[in-house]
Design goal:
The chain contains 11 helices and 12 strands. By secondary structure, the protein is an alpha/beta fold. The longest helix has 110 residues, at 135-244. It binds adenosine-5'-triphosphate and magnesium ion.
């Protein structure tokens, strides 16, 4: 809360100090000032305090300050019989109370040279009047200088008040800034969590396809191994027969056994069967590797990343989503390096590939005779590295082009799409990697472009 600055309620200070060693002069001051002392002035009357020496004046000033009732103005004679003259007294008084207005009253001509030795008070609070003083002149002087004191005091209070307001504002801003920083950190944290949850969801959706991808090779690995096991046991039987059968009938009996065990067939088929088993296992291994690369567990900050490698592993992981409806072609540039969180980019690329497959399904149906086509290419340019995903689907309708990156925008049937895919991908590319994700018009199909700054300095 900001404090209000009420300066209009400050009381007028009309307390005047007079210092002169001549009692008759002091009486003259009292006479001259009486109309002001007796006047019924708004904000209070004038008060007069007379002292006979600069030392006594300084003491009176000190007491007044301590009592919280400072003088506004002092008339100080210049010549005194004591060790301190008026000029030095005035300088000391101003040291004690820098707000005091001082009028030096002198019969002599006060030159600059005369004041050169004294530590001079500030000129704007120091006036010199030549004796003899006119009564009206003295009163006018008292009026205007006490008013000046009050105005300056008001200005000081206002300034202090503004300083306090400023300090309050600065504090408020600092607090707001701190809150903003905390909010930003929390948002970033929540965003990372959200991306992770969405990645898990995407992987979950791919899971049945991936299971199928693993199951097919695993199945024929199992079939081939079973065939190989049978073959090996027959070969062993043949070996035993060679060892045990002897005599003149041996060749005939061994030939008969060889036919019974179909050894010629085994000789032809066994090597191919084992090769297929090895291929199957390699395919499973490749898929597991791609899944690991896709997820990149443990890497949550940016590192030099090959976009082409991201496309390769994502294409393998996403195979279940497109292989029934489309052929996928890759055209990958070497060294497509960017500073990135690989797992996040994989997630964005996955969205584009899955969308392409879904768009193609709209055209060719779920079990087509002629499949559609998805082309994913990477290319390096002077300032950017690009991934382009093109498909032979219906293309993005011009009417919805501006909305497809909005969260929850979908044209898919209820339950088939949440409309979050492109919004997530857009967030990953633009907010987290300072890149661009946009759709380009083509004659047929859709063409999505994902562009990242080359060697972007991690934010
Ligand atoms: N390759 C594409 N061809 C044609 N239209 C597309 C393509 N990709 C996206 N769209 C359009 O953009 C919309 C939004 O896509 P987005 O991926 O954000 O959500 P979704 O695919 O509908 O649902 P979700 O991805 O959450 O399952 C889609 O509903 C579709 O209309
Ligand atoms: Mg989608």
């Amino acid at each position: 809360m900001v404090t209000p600055c009420a300066t209009s309620t400050l009381p007028n200070n009309r307390r005047v100090l007079v210092i002169d060693d001549e009692p008759s002069v002091l009486r003259a001051y009292q006479r001259t000032m009486r109309p002001l002392v007796d006047a019924d002035l708004a904000g209070g009357p004038f008060e007069l305090c007379c002292q006979a020496s600069p030392e006594a004046g300084i003491e009176a000033l000190r007491e007044a300050l301590e009592a919280g009732r400072p003088f506004a103005l002092a008339f100080v004679d210049q010549c005194f019989p004591g060790p301190m003259d008026g000029l030095e007294g005035a300088a000391r008084m101003l040291e004690l109370d820098p707000n005091l207005e001082v009028v030096m009253v002198t019969a002599a001509h006060l030159t600059d040279a005369a004041t050169a030795d004294v530590k001079m008070p500030p000129r704007e609070r120091f006036l010199v009047l030549k004796k003899p003083l006119e009564a009206a002149e003295l009163r006018a002087c008292a009026r205007s200088l006490t008013h000046k004191w009050t105005l300056r005091r008001a200005a000081q209070v206002k300034l202090a008040c503004l300083d306090a307001k400023l300090a309050e504002r600065v504090l408020e801003l600092e607090q707001a800034n701190q809150e903003l920083r905390a909010e930003r950190a929390a948002r970033e944290c929540a965003q990372t969590e959200l991306l992770r949850a969405q990645k898990l969801e995407a992987v979950g959706r791919l899971a049945s396809g991936i299971a199928h991808e693993i199951n097919t090779p695993a199945q024929f690995v199992a079939d081939n191994l079973s065939f190989a096991r049978q073959g090996v046991s027959r070969l062993i039987e043949m070996l035993h027969a060679h060892r045990e059968i002897g005599g003149p009938q041996a060749d005939k009996e061994l030939a008969k056994l060889r036919r019974k065990l179909k050894l010629d067939y085994l000789e032809r088929e066994l090597p191919a069967s084992l090769t297929q088993a090895v291929e199957g296992i390699e395919r499973v291994g490749g898929l597991v590797r791609a899944m690991k690369e896709f997820a990149h567990p443990g890497q949550s900050s940016k590192a030099m990343t090959d976009l082409s490698a991201c496309v390769s592993s994502t294409a393998i992981v996403a195979r279940g989503s497109y292989k029934g409806v489309a052929e996928l072609e890759l055209d990958l540039a070497p060294n497509a390096m960017v500073m990135a969180v690989a797992a996040e980019l994989n997630q964005a690329i996955l969205v584009l590939i899955v969308n392409a497959a879904q768009a193609i399904t709209e055209v060719v149906g779920p079990e087509p005779e002629r499949k559609g086509r998805i082309l994913v290419s990477t290319s390096c340019h002077e300032h950017v590295v690009r991934v382009v995903v093109e498909d032979s689907g219906p293309g993005v309708d011009e009417a919805i082009e501006d909305r497809i990156f909005d969260p929850f925008f979908t044209t898919r049937e209820v339950g088939c799409g949440s409309g979050q895919g492109l919004a997530i991908a857009h967030n990953i590319v633009t907010q987290r990697h300072a890149g661009r994700l946009y759709v380009e018009r083509t004659d047929a199909g859709a063409r999505f472009v994902l562009e990242l700054p080359r060697r972007e300095v991690a934010a």
